[in-house]
């Protein structure tokens, strides 16, 4: 049952309507900000508001539409299963890119770290797992805010670089360590690592790339050509 809460403004006095107008404007502005932020963070254009979820096209991602959907499914299942198994003493996040999963966060002991990895390996269609979970207390709000700021700065640096395509990279930060994922050439990979290392506050850079050739990149950019699937990801510190 859906409960409806409707206000009849026709019965309100002019003073009441004047008092309620700023609230309505603020609420509308808040919704607009959330919608804009969500589309910017996802880097996608939604075509046709009447069919959201079926006609979304990710214009800047080198993964196939099916791979993007699978990654979202893997992340949701992994996060839910880990949360149910480890409880509130753990803070673990799964980041899936091209069905290869990065695990970051904090757990109280080594057993829980290994348990989280085994849980993710049991999620359907997961190809590989990079377990970067820290053993220790859950990060506080200051630590989380610092990591978010670092991620933002690295993303900005990648986008500002004119010799690579910044949106081809997925950036994750945990405890000042930056993790880079993506389907990229070796040239792009080296440049991205340099940008991340030069970013203030970064203590370490770890990569989990699918390396492709410059020819494969050209084929990806030309939809009339058929390109081979990218090779498996390789992790590097």
Automatic annotation (TrEMBL):
Residues 1-21, 218-237 are annotated as: Disordered. Keywords: Membrane, Transmembrane, Transmembrane helix. The keyword Ligase does not apply. Residues 70-137, 146-213 form the BON domain. The keyword Mitochondrion does not apply. Residues 1-15, 218-227 have a biased composition (Polar residues). Residues 228-237 have a biased composition (Pro residues). The chain crosses the membrane at residues 31-59. It comes from the Bacteria. This is Osmotically-inducible protein OsmY, contains BON domain. It comes from Thiomonas bhubaneswarensis. The lineage of its organism: Bacteria, Pseudomonadati, Pseudomonadota, Betaproteobacteria, Burkholderiales.
